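Hi F.,

I've been meaning to write this up properly since the lab meeting, where we talked about keeping a consistent format for the predictions we share between groups. The idea is simple: the sequence comes first, exactly as it goes in, then the structure tokens exactly as they come out, then a line or two of notes. No screenshots and no reformatting. I'm using this chain as the first example so we have something concrete to point to.
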Amino acid sequence: LFYLTSAGLLEQSDDGSLLLVDIKAREVDRYIDSRKDEGLETPPQHRDPAMVKLSASIADSFFAGHMGYIWYRFIDDCHSVFKLDPQVIYALFANLSERRKLFGKNTRPAEELREAWSKRGVRTEKDLEKILGDDRRIEACRDSLGKKRRKALDEVDLDYIRTWILTYKMEPDVPAFLYTYLRKDMDKEKVTMKQMDEILQEWFSHNIHTVDAAKDYEMKKKAADRTQAMTEFCGELFRKRLDGPDLQIIEKWANTDCWEEPIVRYAYEVLHKFMGSITLSQVDERLMLWKENGVASVTKAKQFEAESKKKNKEAYQERKYAAPSSAYEPSIMENEYSKDHLEKKEQESLELLDDLLKDE
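Output, unedited:
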């Protein structure tokens, strides 16, 4: 290796690897340089003044003023074959230099990058700015989603991400939000890229591209689902055709008060014990009473009803044996459980007590 290097047959790149020297290209370069020194004509591909200026700028910026003939030929192909603007050609060399892919006579990395840009429709500086912006958004999405999933993403994952960013036009933080939403809000233990893609397709079809829009969409979707489920439940429970006011109450139960079906059913059963036909409005009054007293579950509602029943019985006993002149104001709880036949018996008892007192 030492002999080959000292003989100029091997050269070392910036990353430390060894490359074979293209002896033929080196001799061509020497010939061109010697002809330039003689003041002879520049090679045909560099007669364009703009390309001469570009080549000189690239040579000074990236090759310390000594650029090989193979690179002149590469620049000419960029312009004449791939139709790249001078600004794009210069940016290509800058990109390679930043990634330490520009060394010696090895044009393969440059050719691969040129081909990739060309396939993505790059011709002008504006085209280039767009795809570089897309690349930054893809990288941002990859990084944020990788942190959420706590794993490195493979090429298949990256294909999904490219589709989400380039085709569905999603903002980079949307896939990471969706992953968290499925894990925490939807209680999914395992979330696959395919599952995410199906939902992102749905969002895309509804013109959703940001996290805020996605949150609003899912919230409305959940509300609609809750309302539909509550409507079907109430239709079976009340066994009636639901009208406009009924549907308004159902909407309130589902999305404002956030009552679950079991507690609505229990409120219905409580009223059904001493009432015949029951309306949604009557059940709503019972639910509002519970809500005012901090009741939010069936268990709490049963405790509340048991305590209310006990208090009402005690209040009835007090009224039953109270003197006629005693001032008494029935409680709200008592009124809730009063029955017509009990009030009638109470009145009869008081009249009997009056008769006994008169006899004495």
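Notes:
DSSP finds 17 helices and two strands in the chain.
The CA atoms of residues 238 and 278 lie 7 Å apart.

If this format works for you, I'll send the rest the same way.

G.
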